[in-house]
Amino acid sequence: MARLLHYLDLPPVWLALFAGLAWAQSLALPFAFLGRAGDVAGGLALAFGLGLSVWAALGVVLARTSLIPRQRPDRLVVTGPYRFSRNPIYLADAVILLGLILIWDALPSLILVPLFPKLIEWRFIRREEALIHEAFGPEYDAYCRQVGRWI
Question: pTM of the full predicted structure?
């Protein structure tokens, strides 16, 4: 059971859980407030988030290092979207969540948007940063001084 929970404790699962909460809220407490504007803004956010996620993942794959949380990376990726954010995939996940909330008119669920990055930071980023620091030391420290955790 613990092994199963280990594999379920991944960022996409948390994103799906948060999105599921927003979707359930949209059904239980529907808002028809944003209408077409929410669909357009949400669609743009969704497209941006998906594009950023693919761009960032592609950079990691091309660098031939791991995308999997909890694994020590073989290389420090500082190109592509990693020039602007140390965590562009997680940032993309938050933008995807925002897009879904806007599309679903789940305005009370907007509170989930800042909570999601905090949870991800607590569950994953701190450990990942420790592994990266262990692997790359001063090079990673210099990168952290230049590039913010989120933006």
Answer: 0.93
